[in-house]
C-alpha cells in the first residue's frame, strides 16, 4: 500500500505535471515545496517517515492539522495556506482516478475547505505618479538606463515579474508594431504590443549595454547574472523612495512589481478600454478576474453612479393655478 502511494506521488511529479499537464516549472516547484513540508510535518508530528506513508496516513483532520502547523510555525498568510491546500487537492484529485483503493482517503482530503481571506485592496499608482516615477532614472548612467527599461516595460506590457525576468532579446520585435512575447502562467504565451517610446528606450538600453544577444537574459544585475524577483523589487523600491523624498504626497500605498500591472489595467480602464482587451493584455483566463479593476477603481465607480443614478429632484405634482384653487378650497373647508 505504501509503495503504491509512493509510486503515484513519484509519477505525479516526474510525468503528470511536466508532461501531461505541461505545468510551469514554478507550479511544479510550489507543489514540490508543499509535499516536502507535508512530509516534514508527518515525520515530526506522527513519526512517519516519507517512505512509510500510505493512503491510511491521510485524513481531513490531519491535513487541517498540517495547515494549522504551517500557520503557527511558518507564519504563512491565509493566501499561502490556501495555495498549499490547492496543491494537496490537486494531487489527491489526480490519485482518485489512478488508484480506486485510496478513494476514501482522497475524498476525505478533498473535503478540507479553503479558508476565507479578507479582501486585499488593489495597489496601483495614479497616472501622475507613474509618469513622475519614469522621470527619476538618469538615462546617461547605464545602470539607471537599465532601471528605466525595467520600470517602463513592467508597466507597458502588464507583465508579471517572472515574465519580465525571463525575457530575452529574441522575444522582442521592433517594427511598424513593436511587440514582446511573454511566457506566463500555465505555460501560456501571449503577444503584447508596446508603444514607440518604450521601444526607443529598449533599443538604446540593448545597444548601449550590450543586451542584444538573442538567447541571453534581457535584464541582468551588476554581476551579469539574470535579474531576479528580489532584484526587480530592489529597483522599484529605490525609485519609489527617491520619489517620496521629492513628492511626499505620492506613493502612499506599498508599490510592488505587481502594482505596475495593476496600474496599467486601471489606466486602460479609465481611458475606456474594453475589459476583454485588458484581460488579453494581462493574460487572464477569465474576464471575471479582470473585473476586479472595475470594482476597485473609485473613478469608474463614481462615473457609473452618476450615469445610472435616478434623480432625486421631486417633480411638481400641481400647477400654480391648481395650487391656488386648492388653498382657497382648504380655507373655505376649514
In short:
The chain has 15 helices and three strands. The chain starts with a helix and ends with a helix.
Number of strands: 3
Largest sheet: 3 strands, antiparallel
How much of the polypeptide forms β-strand, as a percent range? Answer: under 5%
Name of the CATH superfamily of the largest domain: Intergrase catalytic core
Highest-level CATH class of the largest domain: Mainly Alpha
Characterize the overall form.
Answer: globular
Mind explaining what this structure looks like?
This protein is mostly helical. It folds into 2 domains: 2-110, DNA polymerase, domain 1 (Orthogonal Bundle); 127-307, Orthogonal Bundle (hpI Integrase, Chain A), CATH 1.10.443.10. 60% of the residues lie in helices and 4% in strands. It contains 15 helices and 3 strands. It has helices spanning 2-20, 25-46, 60-74, 78-96, 103-110, 127-134, 142-157, 161-165, 196-208, 229-246, 257-270, 275-282, 287-296, 298-308, 320-333; strands at 172-173, 178-183, 189-194. The chain has a 3-stranded antiparallel beta sheet with strand order 1-2-3. Helix 3 (60-74) packs antiparallel against helix 4. The longest helix is centred in the first third of the chain and has 22 residues, at 25-46. The protein is globular, with a radius of gyration of 28 Å.
